[in-house]
């Protein structure tokens, strides 16, 4: 008998949102012919790609010298990083990125950050979509980061990674980094995977522990109470004659510890029905560097972040062409910051009379005998000699969601995808500074201010979000069209003042309101009569509550309003999305994409201190949250070309433009009368981004591969930060009146990655170059008597120096009995480059300022200054991270 031969495909990679084509011919042969095995290779050109995306596999993550997801994102074209470490995709603000795990959101709606850490060892595939994206993705305006986690395998597998190391630099700007200690940075990762019930139930478990002392150290000279560091023999909390002084010692000031655990169960109920249960928990603790407290770091607060994700996913196939996914998830992100967990912790209590004498500036007899009575106890340009952080902050974001997606290949031309998602958030926040319960003694005895106190901000809100989308992937001949529309809905479930000139219900400005109860004020009819007086003719004249505010001249409708509060409005938008890919040959394809994008502002801008607490003291109050903010909106365009130049070399060209409106900013001052005003957030900022990206990819082949991308981009707008205009107003400066470069506007960016594999030796080299970010210049004039005048020039009108960096990882394959593995060395910042991240405004450099010349002229030597002026003006935190070297080993069995 004669028939077609049998071909079997192996190593086929299925990627997110991609159609995998298998092209071959079947030869006619006798039926008893042998099976032909075809091993699939990754295609050079993605003919169905209609937007910009990068896909990084688990194998690539393993050989790259990177630590977490953020390191991967920063390597993509069009991505920049601000001085605070925030990631900006295509010129957008850092909160415009949506983070997904296995297709569902893990974004913390409070600030747009990722709610739970996903470790590299848990990632099967990482997809970064920049600029435009299909209708299935929402709540983002710049990019999507979609993380696919690993499933359990059909056989037992284990993976162990251990490494340790340290930062090392010969630069004197870094204290205590001139030697190398192998145990300053420590990491251990363990993965276990396998079947629980063969061919039915598999598991995947991963755990990681990481601890780092960081690279910024301070010479601890004083305790947080102001005493010289000592051994407290009698445990009374301060130095006395029975104690022994200690030598100052170096203390880590930007240390970080983190732990994470992921557990994933995959249950194949039948060939068409799969159930997945995924649980991820991360716990992180760290301390931020405080330059001015580096001699008394002990009293600085510690940051705590705990994130968790629990997801249940049911996938069912109705046929070979139609399937659906239903996800039920909960993500929790809790962030706290405090020195000690319990506010009654005895270490908050300051018992030392010396501390209180120091605070008052009184000179002790010992000091006056040594230096004279004219000594300056508080000289300028001096680090803090004491300090107990009494501010405390607690917040929690819990998001429960239901998501359903259906995909159907209705015919050979159309793949329909539709779905909906509902999210219910619960936000809690409590922030305050401990107060002294008694001002009559010399002991600080802490107490927590009342919830209604001006010194405390606390709230609880439960906003609701919903969305629906439908899209069609049309494959007509060689042309691909992704067309869709997305509807998004948001209910802030809050309220705002009906009378903007009378916002604080517990301390009204109108004296006539003082006699009303809180309930009466909540239901007030502003047009009703508040009192009646007689005019000069003896005729009664009635005055309403609204009359009191008519001098402001902007609330004529107040007479018709009822109630202190009005409910916030529901926000919604329809967002069309379109992407087209059309091949120009069998080795090249062009694409175009366009879309409207919609994002609710960070919840921190909506809900912070919405009670608008005002005191009788002060003149400018704010900035207060505004739960009735409109969504931020953008329109994005992109055109691109993929072209195969050689059998393993690809050229990718992309040009893009994004126009963003209704960005959140601080509004104009709202008059309260008597020279007082307050500020709230409003939608009024604007930005636009345009750029080109040129990419060359030499796919990994014969032990060698590389990737290079160059970006030219301009990101301009009215303000870089929502509170920026408020800061200008209260400091007496002119707010922005024109479009200027944004803080993260980096015009030229070059990224490169190179991979070599030779006889078990694997080398990975990453390179990054970026032109200078903008800064605002300041001209400082001073006189010998100490008079000073600072002139602030046009904002962001000058540029910092360019930056560059090399990272290197070298590994060697090993085998120990039944264990396969590798040993490796990982070197970040290989050349120990000193990149300037922040600078002095008068010089544009991090290492010098005219202010130091002034300091040397008016305060060259102060006996009570326990350090040099060079120490004071030397800012190691204004530079990028110095060289770090890690040695490690991986084992698999």
Number of helices: 9
**What distance separates the N and C termini?**
47 Å
Count the E strands. 51
- Helix fraction bin: under 10%
Radius of gyration (CA) equals: 31 Å
User: Low-confidence parts, pLDDT < 50 over ≥5 residues?
Assistant: 783-788
Largest beta sheet, briefly? 22 strands, antiparallel, barrel
Question: How does the overall form come out from the CA principal axes?
Answer: globular
**Could you tell me the strand content as a percent range?**
over 45%
**Which secondary-structure class do the elements indicate?**
mainly beta
What would the average pLDDT be, to the nearest integer? 88
GO biological process, one term: siderophore transmembrane transport
Protein name: TonB-dependent receptor plug domain-containing protein
Domain TonB-dependent receptor-like beta-barrel: 290-830
Pfam families: Plug, TonB_dep_Rec_b-barrel
Give a structural overview.
- It is found in: Cell outer membrane.
- Its main location: membrane.
- This protein is mainly beta and 893 residues long.
- It has a domain at 2-39.
- The chain is 6% helix and 48% strand.
- The protein has a 22-stranded antiparallel beta barrel. It has a five-stranded mixed beta sheet with strand order 5-10-11-8-9. A two-stranded antiparallel sheet has the order 1-3.
- A hairpin with a 5-residue loop joins β31 (529-534) and β32 (540-544).
- It starts with a strand and ends with a strand.
- The relative contact order is 0.11.
SSE arrangement:
Blueprint: E1 2-4, E2 7-10, E3 28-30, E4 36-39, E5 52-57, H1 58-63, H2 69-73, E6 79-81, E7 87-89, E8 97-101, E9 104-105, E10 123-130, E11 143-149, E12 157-167, E13 185-197, E14 201-212, E15 217-220, E16 230-231, E17 244-245, E18 249-252, E19 256-270, E20 273-286, E21 302-317, E22 322-338, H3 353-360, H4 365-371, E23 391-409, E24 414-433, E25 435-436, E26 446-447, E27 456-461, E28 464-476, E29 479-491, E30 495-497, H5 518-522, E31 529-534, E32 540-544, E33 565-567, E34 571-585, E35 588-599, H6 603-607, E36 620-624, E37 632-646, E38 649-666, E39 670-673, E40 676-701, E41 704-717, H7 724-730, E42 740-741, E43 748-758, E44 761-770, E45 774-775, E46 778-782, E47 788-792, E48 798-799, E49 803-816, E50 819-828, H8 850-858, H9 869-873, E51 884-892
Parallel strand pairs: 2-4, 8-11, 36-40
Antiparallel strand pairs: 1-3, 5-10, 6-7, 8-9, 10-11, 12-13, 12-51, 13-14, 14-19, 15-18, 16-17, 19-20, 20-21, 21-22, 22-23, 23-24, 24-27, 24-28, 25-26, 28-29, 29-34, 30-33, 31-32, 34-35, 35-37, 37-38, 38-40, 39-40, 40-41, 41-42, 41-43, 43-44, 44-49, 45-48, 46-47, 49-50, 50-51
């Amino acid at each position: 008998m004669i028939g077609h031969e049998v071909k079997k495909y192996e190593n086929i990679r299925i990627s997110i949102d991609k159609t995998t084509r298998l092209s071959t011919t079947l030869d006619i042969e006798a039926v008893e012919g042998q099976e032909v095995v075809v091993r699939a290779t990754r295609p050079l050109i993605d003919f169905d790609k209609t937007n910009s995306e990068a896909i990084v596999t688990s194998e690539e993550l393993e050989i790259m010298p990177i630590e977490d997801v953020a390191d991967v994102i920063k390597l993509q074209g069009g991505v920049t990083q601000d001085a605070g470490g925030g990631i900006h995709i295509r010129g957008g603000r850092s909160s415009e990125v949506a983070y997904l795990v296995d297709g569902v959101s893990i974004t913390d709606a409070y600030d747009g950050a990722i709610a739970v850490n996903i470790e590299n060892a848990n990632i099967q595939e990482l997809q970064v979509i920049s600029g435009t994206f299909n209708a299935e993705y929402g709540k983002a305006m710049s990019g999507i980061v979609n993380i696919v986690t690993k499933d359990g395998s059909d056989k037992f597998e284990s993976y162990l990674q251990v490494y340790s190391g340290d930062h090392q630099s010969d630069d004197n700007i870094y204290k205590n980094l001139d030697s190398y200690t192998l145990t300053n940075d420590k990491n251990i990762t363990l993965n276990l995977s396998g079947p629980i019930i063969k061919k039915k139930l598999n598991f995947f478990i991963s755990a990681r522990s990481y601890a780092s002392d960081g690279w910024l150290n301070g010479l601890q000279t004083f305790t947080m109470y102001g005493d010289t560091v000592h051994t407290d023999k009698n445990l009374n909390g301060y130095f006395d004659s029975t104690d022994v002084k200690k030598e100052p010692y170096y203390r880590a000031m930007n240390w970080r510890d983190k732990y994470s655990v992921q557990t994933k169960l995959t249950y194949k109920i039948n060939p068409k029905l799969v159930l997945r249960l995924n649980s991820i928990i991360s716990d992180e603790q760290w301390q931020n560097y405080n330059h001015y407290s580096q001699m008394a770091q002990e009293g600085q607060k510690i940051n705590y972040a705990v994130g968790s994700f629990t997801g249940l996913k049911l996938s069912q196939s109705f046929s070979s062409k139609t399937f659906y996914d239903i996800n039920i998830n909960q993500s929790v992100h809790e962030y706290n910051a405090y020195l000690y967990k319990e506010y009654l912790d005895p270490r908050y209590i300051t018992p030392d009379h010396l501390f209180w004498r120091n605070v008052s500036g009184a000179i002790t007899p010992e000091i006056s005998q040594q230096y004279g009575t004219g000594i300056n106890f508080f000289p300028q340009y001096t680090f803090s000699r004491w300090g107990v952080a009494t501010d405390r902050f607690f917040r929690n974001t819990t998001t429960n969601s239901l998501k359903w997606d259906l995909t159907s290949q209705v015919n050979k031309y159309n793949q329909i995808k539709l779905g909906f998602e509902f999210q219910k958030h619960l936000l809690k926040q409590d922030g305050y500074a401990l107060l002294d319960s008694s001002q009559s003694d010399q002991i600080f005895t802490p107490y927590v201010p009342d919830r209604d106190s001006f010194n405390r901000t606390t709230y609880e809100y439960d906003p609701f979000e919903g969305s629906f989308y439908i899209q069609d992937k049309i494959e007509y001949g060689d042309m691909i069209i992704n067309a869709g529309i997305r509807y998004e809905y948001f209910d802030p479930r809050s309220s705002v003042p009906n009378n903007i000139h009378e916002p604080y219900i517990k301390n009204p400005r109108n004296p006539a309101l003082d006699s009303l109860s809180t309930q009466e004020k909540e239901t007030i009819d502003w047009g009703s009569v508040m009192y009646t007086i007689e005019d000069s003719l003896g005729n009664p004249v009635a005055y309403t509550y609204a009359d009191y505010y008519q001098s402001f001249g902007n609330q004529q409708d107040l007479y018709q309003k009822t109630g202190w509060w009005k409910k916030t409005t529901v926000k919604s938008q329809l967002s069309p999305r379109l992407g087209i890919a059309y091949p120009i040959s069998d080795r090249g394809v062009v694409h175009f994409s366009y879309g409207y994008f919609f994002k609710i502002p960070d919840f921190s801008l909506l809900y912070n201190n919405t009670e608008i607490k005002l005191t009788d003291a002060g003149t400018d109050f704010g900035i207060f949250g505004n739960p009735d903010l409109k969504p931020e909106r953008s329109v994005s365009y992109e055109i691109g070309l993929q072209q195969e130049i050689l059998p393993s070399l690809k050229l990718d060209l992309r040009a893009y433009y994004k126009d963003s409106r209704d960005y959140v900013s601080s509004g104009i001052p709202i008059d309260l009368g008597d020279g007082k005003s307050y500020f709230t957030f409003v939608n009024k900022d604007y930005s636009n981004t345009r750029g080109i990206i040129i990419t060359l990819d030499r796919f990994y082949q014969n032990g060698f591969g590389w990737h290079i991308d160059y970006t030219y981009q301009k990101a301009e707008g009215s303000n870089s930060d929502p509170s920026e205009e408020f800061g200008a107003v209260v400091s007496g400066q002119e707010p922005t009146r024109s479009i200027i470069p944004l803080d993260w506007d980096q015009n030229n960016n070059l990224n490169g990655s190179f991979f070599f594999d030779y006889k078990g030796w694997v080398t990975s080299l990453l390179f990054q170059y970026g032109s200078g970010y903008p800064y605002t210049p300041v001209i400082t004039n001073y006189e010998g008597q100490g008079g000073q005048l600072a002139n602030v020039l046009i904002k962001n009108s000058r540029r910092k120096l360019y930056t560059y960096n090399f990272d290197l990882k070298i590994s060697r394959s090993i085998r120990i009995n039944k264990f396969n593995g590798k040993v490796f060395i990982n070197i970040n910042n290989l050349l120990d480059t000193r990149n300037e991240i922040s600078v002095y405004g008068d010089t544009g450099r991090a290492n010098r300022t005219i202010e130091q010349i002034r300091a040397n002229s008016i305060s060259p030597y102060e006996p009570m200054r326990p350090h040099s002026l060079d120490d004071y003006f030397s800012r190691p935190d204004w530079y990028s991270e110095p060289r770090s070297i890690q040695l490690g080993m991986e084992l698999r069995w």
